[in-house]
């Protein structure tokens, strides 16, 4: 039998073994196909690379006659899809924001009084003049579609004593031609979610003894919760961590009232909430180590695991039950700490958005579950309690302490000058930082809260679209849990 | 003919060790084509030297380990793919009993009973009866961490019997128990067996196996080398020669040859401490009266005669290549 035939046979065999998950696999294939269609829809109906069009404009300086030309014809209309790079509220022309008759190189126009009350949007690099004040209608990082028309006008300006005639082409739009991309995205995302959950439901229906094993998950989880919550170690850790989070909450609230020039100034309540996320992550990741040490290693040492394995319970159920139980052991005190921290933050500062508060709590619990599952992987694979603690501390140091240093190192390796002033505002650096952040559950938590403080999911946070953040929020716990169950199941082969 | 409740067919199991990149660095074959039958209602004693594969076999039966190949069939059904179904029918008592120290006996029973989908009332009712049967009733509200080893074993047995299993699998059940505990356990097991429970136990204590079991299987190097009922073994023992250990003086080679020639009696000289010699004679039981007369007539001074019955130990050592 040739290599190709062997591979086909192996694949067929593997596919047949996964009969239970066929509906889910097929639904995922459909979701991916729909996602491709989704992308194709935007590519075919909008200009998804506005920066290129803006970059291709020709500025010709012929003595005192300057022209700004685009490749498109005057009167052409294009629907652009892009990210609002700056907040519209800062881009509204007011009579105290410019001197009429002056030429702006960045915006490629001459200021005049008829610009008052209009907004110059920066949509993924292209400048589009909107004949309206868009403050509080749209916000920075939102992904929008905007139908703009190329127009031409002539103006003059003084260029160091010389009068220059500028024949300029530029893009203009009306306020009613701007929409959030989520107005179309939602149809695709809803369809994708429906397909996914249908596949998942059909697959779960094929799982034998699902109801019984789910019951056993809760039975084991309740047991772990009762044991864990009474443990002196957890009581001490809980008190210390709660006080820490409360302290940080109060501090972040207070810093909202501080000096705006200060490096520690917190701009607004939503920003403070995101920073509080980091501190919650900082302490619960340590708590996750604390609870996971005894989860498998102690059971092996005390020989309680063999009696448990002889009971009618799947190995996966044991892992999931412990994960749920231990997440509750950390999550319930963490919930109290989160609420108290919030209260102190609000008391000292402003009130964050309601969606942000809900995200802070709910995503926080998801993050706790992720960290517990992560630690369980070590607890299952390690052969001693010391190993569990060392691996756990190593991961905590990496994710909570030295992650930024890692970003700087990688940015430097990719050619960014990290010694320059203000390098952190370099879009390239921000893109690296945000993409790497997807590999850190703490950052994913912060991003998710940041995303959900907005009114729409059609957001791009420094190169990471909103849907990707939510996908990461879901994939992290699933991946960690799946790895833990796989590691534990592997032991049945001896 | 007793119906087979458990049938192990050509089961193989190899333990493998891998390095970080997944390359196999060592392997050990624990089971090499094991075949074994346990009938319904038997108490089956599973014997073997250390490393023979007893614990591996037990772990495969109860589903903690998966065999690499072969079949384990319980009541006509293969356990592959039906693990949970069979775990409901099997009770397990491990050698090293691990229980949660902070729980009381009652709480332990409630916890483990929860895995069998039994109602709290039923768990309480059965638990109470089992604790009473095993002498733990008055200690049922004490924490397990305060229990002695014997008490823990009895509690673990209660847990194993909570779901009224059809098969009870026990790994070295008498290990760590005092003689009183061993006797109590023996009585309980025999009582349970009378009520229809099939018991499989592995043990090193051959006298216990002889006392408790109805059938014996001897395993070595991952294979079953002998399977017999205890009655069959007893008959074999009776057919074999009896050994007499004698402390004598002046036992010569000539007498040894004479014994072998006349009565086919084998003599083995063990040691000579100057005062007397230790000689072991292998002979049929009917020759015992004759031998003493013979030796005395030959002028042999007899200081002591000790009969040494052939036992299961002899058979075990012979089958497993020990001496």
From TrEMBL, chain A:
According to the record, the segments passing through the membrane are 21-42, 187-204, 234-252, 272-293, 323-345, 357-381, 393-416, 464-484
Q: Which domain of life is it from?
A: Archaea
The Gene Ontology CC terms held by the record are: plasma membrane
Q: Which UniProt keywords apply?
A: Membrane, Transmembrane, Transmembrane helix
* GO MF, one example: ABC-type transporter activity
What protein name is recorded for this chain? Answer: ABC transporter permease
Record the organism: Marine Group III euryarchaeote CG-Epi1
């Amino acid at each position: 039998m040739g290599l190709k035939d062997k591979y086909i046979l192996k694949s067929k065999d593997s596919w047949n073994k996964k009969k239970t998950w066929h509906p889910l696999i097929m639904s995922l294939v459909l979701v991916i196909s729909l996602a491709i269609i989704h992308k194709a829809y935007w590519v075919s109906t909008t200009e998804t690379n506005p920066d290129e069009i803006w970059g291709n404009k020709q500025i010709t300086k012929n003595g005192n006659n300057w022209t700004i030309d685009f490749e498109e014809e005057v009167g052409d209309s294009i629907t652009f899809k892009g990210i609002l790079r700056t907040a519209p509220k800062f881009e509204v022309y007011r009579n105290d924001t410019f001197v009429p008759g002056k030429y702006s190189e960045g915006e490629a126009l001459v200021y005049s009084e008829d610009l008052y009350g209009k907004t110059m949007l920066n949509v993924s690099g292209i400048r589009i003049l909107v004949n309206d004040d868009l403050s509080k209608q749209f916000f920075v990082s939102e992904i929008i579609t905007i139908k703009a028309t190329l127009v031409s006008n002539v103006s003059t300006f003084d260029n160091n004593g010389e009068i220059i005639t500028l024949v300029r082409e530029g893009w203009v739009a009306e306020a009613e031609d701007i929409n959030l991309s989520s107005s179309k995205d939602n149809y695709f995302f809803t369809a994708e979610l429906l397909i996914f959950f249908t596949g998942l439901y059909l697959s779960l229906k094929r799982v034998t003894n699902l109801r019984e094993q789910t019951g056993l998950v809760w039975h084991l989880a309740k047991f772990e919760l009762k044991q864990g919550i009474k443990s002196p170690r957890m009581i001490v850790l809980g008190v210390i961590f709660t006080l820490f989070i409360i302290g940080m909450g109060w501090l972040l609230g207070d810093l909202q009232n501080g000096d705006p020039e200060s490096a520690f100034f917190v701009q607004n309540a939503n920003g403070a909430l995101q920073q509080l996320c980091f501190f919650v992550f900082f302490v619960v990741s340590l708590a996750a180590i604390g609870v996971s040490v005894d989860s498998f290693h102690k059971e092996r040492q005390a020989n309680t695991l063999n009696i448990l394995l002889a009971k009618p319970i799947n190995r996966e159920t044991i892992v999931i039950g412990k994960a749920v139980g231990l997440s509750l052991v950390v999550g319930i005190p963490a919930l109290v700490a989160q609420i108290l921290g919030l209260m102190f933050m609000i008391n000292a500062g402003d009130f964050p958005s309601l969606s942000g508060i809900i995200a802070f709590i709910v995503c926080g619990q998801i993050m706790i579950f992720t960290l517990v599952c992560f630690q369980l992987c070590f607890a299952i694979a390690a052969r001693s309690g010391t190993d569990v603690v060392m691996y756990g501390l190593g991961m905590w140091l990496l994710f909570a302490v030295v992650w930024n240093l890692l970003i700087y190192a990688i940015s430097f390796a990719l050619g960014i000058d990290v010694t320059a002033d203000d390098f952190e505002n370099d879009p390239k650096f921000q893109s690296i930082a945000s993409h790497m952040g997807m590999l850190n559950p703490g950052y994913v938590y912060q991003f998710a809260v940041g995303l959900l403080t907005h009114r729409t999911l059609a957001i791009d946070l420094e190169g990471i679209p909103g849907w990707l953040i939510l996908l990461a929020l879901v994939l992290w716990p699933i991946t960690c849990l799946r790895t833990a169950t796989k590691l534990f199941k592997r032991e049945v082969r001896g | 003919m007793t119906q087979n409740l458990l049938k192990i067919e050509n089961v193989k199991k190899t333990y493998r060790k891998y390095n970080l990149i997944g390359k196999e660095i060592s392997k050990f074959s624990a089971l090499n084509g094991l075949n074994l039958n346990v009938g319904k209602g038997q108490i089956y004693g599973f014997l073997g030297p250390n490393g023979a594969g007893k614990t591996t076999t037990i772990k495969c039966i109860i589903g903690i380990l998966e065999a690499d190949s072969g079949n384990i069939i319980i009541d006509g059904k293969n356990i592959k793919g039906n693990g949970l179904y069979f775990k409901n029918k099997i009770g397990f008592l491990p050698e090293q009993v691990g229980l949660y120290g902070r729980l009381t006996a009652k709480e332990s029973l409630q916890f483990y009973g929860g895995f069998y989908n039994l109602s709290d009332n039923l768990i309480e009712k059965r638990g109470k009866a089992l604790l009473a049967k095993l002498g733990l009733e008055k200690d049922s509200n004490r924490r397990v961490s305060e229990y002695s080893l014997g008490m823990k074993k009895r509690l673990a047995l209660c847990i194993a019997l909570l779901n009224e299993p059809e098969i009870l699998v026990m790994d070295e059940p008498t290990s760590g128990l005092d003689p009183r505990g061993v006797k109590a356990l023996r009585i309980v097991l025999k009582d349970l067996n009378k009520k229809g429970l099939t018991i499989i136990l592995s043990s090193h204590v051959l006298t216990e196996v002889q006392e408790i079991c109805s059938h014996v299987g001897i395993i070595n190097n991952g294979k079953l080398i002998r399977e017999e009922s205890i009655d069959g073994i007893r008959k074999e023992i009776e057919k074999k020669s009896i050994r007499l250990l004698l402390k004598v003086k002046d036992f010569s080679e000539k007498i040894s040859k004479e014994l072998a020639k006349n009565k086919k009696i084998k003599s083995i000289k063990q040691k000579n401490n100057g005062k007397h010699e230790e000689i072991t004679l292998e002979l049929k039981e009917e020759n015992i009266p004759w031998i003493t007369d013979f030796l005395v007539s030959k002028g042999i001074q007899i200081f002591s005669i000790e009969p040494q019955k052939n036992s299961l130990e002899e058979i075990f050592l012979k089958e497993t290549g020990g001496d």
